[in-house]
Design a protein that fits this description.
The complex is a heterodimer of chains A (about 150) and B (about 425). Chain A is an alpha+beta fold and about 150 residues long. Chain A is about 50% helix and about 15% strand. In chain A, helix 1 crosses helix 3 and helix 2 packs across helix 3. With about 425 residues, chain B is an alpha/beta fold. Chain B has 2 domains: about 150 residues, Aspartate Aminotransferase, domain 1; about 250 residues, 3-Layer(aba) Sandwich (Aspartate Aminotransferase, domain 2), CATH 3.40.640.10. In chain B, strands 4-10-9-8-7-5-6 form a 7-stranded mixed β-sheet, with helices on both faces. Chain B has a 4-stranded antiparallel β-sheet with strand order 13-14-17-16, with helices on one face. In chain B, helix 6 links the parallel strand 5 and strand 6. The longest helix of chain B is centred in the first third of the chain and has 20 residues. Chain B is globular and about 70 Å long. Classes of the chains: A alpha+beta (about 150), B alpha/beta (about 425). The interface between A and B is medium-sized, with 16 and 18 residues.
Chain lengths: ~150, ~425
């Protein structure tokens, strides 16, 4: 996914899209639809080292660094988590480690999905966001060292 | 004020629901349908009033004080012990030890009895159905003592294979620890038979009653178990209080679990002598308020009557089982002949977590995941299930809402 948007611009876009929905049902249908549309991750990436394990669902996350920008690929065995991941990728992919590290991802709260980031063991989304930022930090440190 | 007497005569679920104010609340704009009772039950107003009443009128530390409040608090605290003793038909009140819950009861036995009695090469038998609470304490003990943990296998319905169990028993077996009912599948285990065979082999038995105490008549003497544990919060009581029952001679011989106030008889820097049962195992200021409120919960269950509750829950179980089986691609995990009102299921091509989130969106609370029984899930080759579990206050209309919610979720997800 390529974009010239800043992270904040993409977040605004998503918040506006969610503003069109009247009900929770519609929001979830949309998220599930995003989940279905996110390309399945090739089995070669579904390695233990790419696993972000929650208590219930499993998330796989792989990254590429091109021209100083990070590109994420991810998958999950659960559809709603996959849809949420799809939005995270849309927001964060194609940005520099610094940009990624400095974002608060406020859009998740604004679209009413805060509960998915709550401190429960029930899902992998919180660990997923942490993992995405960890990759950014690792790339940043690697670049600085080189 | 709802007269409890009216409930006694006929089981009237609508009257019962009036005691549970939480059932009137809405979730995501819809009336709450609470079907996560195997995780914890809701509390009747009698329990909430007992908690508030204690803190408003009687709060004092128990056993030591000479003043009126201390006497009142002590009397209420000890009254729960009597109620619990009769609730599970223990021979004496001294055999009832208050803990934080079933988990702590199992750990207490593993640490105190286990460390004094388990040696290298000894064997402990558990079952495939066990909750992590009845696995991990024994694993820790076995690791420390170089003892061996053996596991009773199950059949496809989720029933223990008793023939295989008998083969595991030997003179090396020192302890058998099994659940009375499975939290994930609902299977009721033939504990009397299990205990009889263990005793014949010279082993003692701990029964994890976390899931059974709310549904079944418990008679620890008739069962002849050596230890029995349960949690208050799964029997309509508060969280943070549970019970360990043990045979007197075992409890008397066991060293204390925690040291501190209350559990001592005399302390000098040279030697401390321990208090008698049950106080030997109740170090420190106990969870007074919750213990007192546990009595209100058990009294409430007694007033309605376990038999009537069981009949109602069985009806719900049958009704829900039949209705769920109508759903295409749905498979019930755990089809034992004897079950408490717990149904685990999976739906082909749909992750349980997605079901849980969408049901919550319809106001329906179920549990999804591995239910702290990862080895059991591995045995069925699935990562987890969705689980609906029923209590005395659930209705057939709520089962209908579950089915409706599931059909809606399936439509969105497929």
């Amino acid at each position: 996914m390529t974009t010239n948007n800043t992270i904040e611009q993409t977040e605004r876009e998503i918040v506006e899209e969610f503003g069109l929905f009247d009900s929770w049902d519609d929001k979830y249908e949309y998220i599930i639809d995003l989940g279905k549309k996110l390309p399945t991750l090739d089995d070669k990436f579904k390695l233990d080292e790419n696993k972000v394990k929650g208590c219930q669902s499993t998330v796989w996350l792989a990254t590429d660094l091109k021209d100083g920008k990070i590109y994420y690929k991810a998958d999950s065995d659960a559809m709603i988590v996959k849809g949420l991941i799809s939005m995270l990728i849309r927001v964060l992919s194609g940005h520099t480690p610094d940009e990624i590290l400095n974002t608060k991802l406020d859009f998740i709260n604004e679209i009413g999905m805060t509960s998915h980031l709550a401190q429960t063991r029930s899902n992998g989304l919180l660990s997923m966001v942490k993992q995405m930022k960890n990759y950014a930090l690792a790339y940043k440190l690697k670049t600085e060292a080189a | 004020m709802i007269e409890t007497a009216t409930i006694e005569k006929t089981f009237d679920v609508e009257s019962i629901r009036k005691h549970f104010s939480i059932l009137k609340r809405q979730v995501k704009g819809k009336p709450l349908v609470y079907l996560d009772n195997a995780a914890t039950t809701q509390k009747p107003k009698e329990v909430i009033e007992a908690l508030v009443g204690y803190y408003s009128m009687n709060n004092a530390n128990v056993h030591r004080g000479i003043h009126t409040l201390a006497e009142e608090a002590t009397a209420a605290y000890e009254a729960t012990r009597d109620t619990v003793a009769s609730f599970i038909n223990a021979a004496s009140r001294e055999q009832i030890i208050f803990t934080r819950g079933a988990t702590e009861g199992i750990n207490l036995v593993a640490y105190s009895w286990g460390r004094a009695n388990i040696n290298a090469g000894d064997e402990i038998i558990i079952s495939t159905l066990e909750h992590h609470s009845n696995i991990v304490p024994w694993q820790i003990l076995c690791e420390e003592k170089n003892a061996i943990l053996k596991v009773i296998p199950i059949n496809n319905s989720g029933e223990l294979l008793i023939d295989e169990y008998e083969k595991l028993l030997s003179s090396k077996t020192k302890l058998v620890a099994v659940s009375h009912a499975s939290n994930t599948l609902g299977t009721i285990n033939p504990v009397k038979k299990i205990i009889e065979k263990a005793h014949a082999a010279g082993a003692i038995v701990l029964i994890d009653g976390a899931q059974s105490t709310v549904h079944l008549d418990i008679d620890v003497q008739e069962m002849d178990c050596d230890f029995f544990v349960f949690s208050g919060h799964k029997v309509y009581g508060p969280t943070g209080v549970g019970v360990l029952y043990g045979k007197k001679e075992l409890l008397e011989a066991m060293p204390p679990f925690l040291g501190g106030g209350e559990m001592i008889k005399e302390v000098t820097f040279v030697k401390t002598t321990y208090n008698e049962l049950p106080y030997k195992f109740e170090a420190g200021t106990p969870n007074i308020a919750d213990v007192i409120a546990l009595k209100a919960a058990l009294d409430f269950v007694n007033k309605i009557g376990k038999k009537a509750i069981r009949r109602h829950e069985d009806e719900l179980l049958q009704y829900a089982t039949a209705a769920l089986q109508e759903i295409k691609g749905l498979r019930i995990i755990g089809t034992a002949k004897e079950k408490v009102s717990v149904i685990s299921f999976v739906i082909e091509g749909i992750h349980p977590q997605d079901l849980g989130i969408l049901l919550d969106n319809s106001g329906i609370a179920v549990r999804t995941g591995h239910h702290c029984t990862e080895p059991l899930m591995a045995c069925f080759g699935i990562p987890g299930t969705a689980r609906a579990s029923f209590a005395m206050y659930n209705t057939k209309q709520e089962v209908d809402k579950l089915i409706e919610g599931l059909n809606k979720a399936i439509k969105i997800l497929s």
